[in-house]
Design goal:
By secondary structure, the chain is an all-alpha fold. 83% of the residues lie in helices and 0% in strands. It contains 14 helices and no strands. It has helices at residues 3-10, 20-50, 59-90, 99-132, 137-140, 143-166, 171-207, 213-256, 258-261, 264-279, 284-291, 293-315, 317-324, 330-339.
């Protein structure tokens, strides 16, 4: 699909990365990123499933779940596939024998990254509707509509990837369309949408001065929560496009500067650009847990419960197991029988 990526990986044994130490360093870096992305997104999904404070069941949470699933697929499948690919090259396998292996990796990575891109756009629209149409938000944004939209994201991504393999569009045109349609265009529209969202939040904050003290306090908390959530989604947006930017530069250079493709610096930059796409997937869960209050509280509660459960088992495992069985008086009865 992506000829520049395929060319880079198939020539991965050339240039400065032909050294075993360079390939080993890439393999270790790929493993670290893939492991972090897999574990972080898995924990985020588990915390949402646990839902300790009963406040993580909303349409916007479904977008977060979809983003976590896409990041997990990119990190776990694509990340570990790249790690295994580098490991096989390190052990002496030729790049020619791993072409199908590389093809599967590209399909998984591109599909999940495109879903993430569509999800970022949906998050921006969700924040804008939550602020500008707060009274009708629950009627407009329903779980059924969001789930249908998520399904369309995956269908669109798979169809777009299939279009690249069909040969209906030249590879250079397809790559430029892929990058500018999913990066350049949203990068122009989404900052404007977030700017209007923050302007609406500021206007709502000014209107709160005319209400009573009790309502003002309640509205102030709501606005602060909306501001923190919106800022978190802005950070996710920035991380997504910062990670995508090196790859966009690579695609444009490979199509408009054929001389640059054969240089050693271009090969090194392509290594970095491809792995930047996977690196972003390991950062999003930390943004949710750091910036959004309800996710931060849920993370703390789940981890505190796990620590308390382990500490209780470590102090007196017999009492814990008995209490879990629902027979707290069994231990006392057994002690009395022993004394008799």
């Amino acid at each position: 699909m992506n000829s520049s990526t395929a060319q880079f990986e198939s020539n991965g044994t050339s240039s400065s990365f032909s050294l075993d130490y360079g390939r080993l360093a890439l393999m270790l870096g790929d493993f670290s990123v893939a492991f972090t992305a897999s574990v972080a997104n898995s924990l985020l999904l588990v915390i949402i499933y646990k839902n300790p404070h009963r406040n993580l069941r909303s349409p916007s949470t479904n977008l977060v779940i979809n983003m976590a699933v896409a990041d997990f697929l990119t990190g776990f499948l694509s990340g570990f596939l790249v790690t295994a690919y580098d490991g096989l090259l390190f052990m002496g396998r030729t790049a020619k024998s791993l072409e199908r292996y590389l093809l599967v990796n590209i399909v998984i990575a591109v599909t999940s990254i495109m879903v993430g891109c569509c999800n970022v756009v949906a998050m921006a629209c969700d924040r804008w509707l939550a602020v500008t149409a707060a009274l009708n938000y629950r009627r407009i944004v329903t779980a059924r509509r969001v789930n249908s939209l998520i399904g369309l994201f995956w269908i669109y991504a798979i169809g777009f990837v299939g279009l690249g393999f069909s040969g209906a569009i030249p590879k250079d045109v397809y790559e430029l369309l892929y990058c500018h349609l999913h990066v350049s265009l949203p990068l122009i529209v989404l900052p404007l949408l977030y700017w209007k969202t923050f302007r609406a939040l500021e206007a709502h904050s000014r209107r709160m001065t005319n209400v009573g003290p009790g309502n003002q306090r309640m509205n102030s908390k709501t606005v602060c929560a909306e501001i923190k959530t919106t800022k978190a989604f802005v950070i996710v947006l920035c991380l997504f496009y910062v990670s995508f930017l090196p790859y966009v530069v690579v695609v444009n250079l490979s199509n408009f500067c054929p001389v640059c493709v054969v240089s050693k610096g271009f090969q090194v930059f392509l290594h970095i650009a491809y792995r930047f796409l996977i690196l972003n997937c390991s950062l999003d869960p930390f943004v949710y847990a750091w910036r959004i209050p309800k996710y931060r509280r849920a993370v703390r509660t789940v981890f505190n419960r796990c620590c308390r459960f382990r500490r209780r088992n470590a102090i007196d495992p017999d009492v814990t197991s008995i209490s879990m069985c629902g027979n707290p008086g069994l231990e006392t009865t057994h002690a009395a029988e022993t004394q008799t």
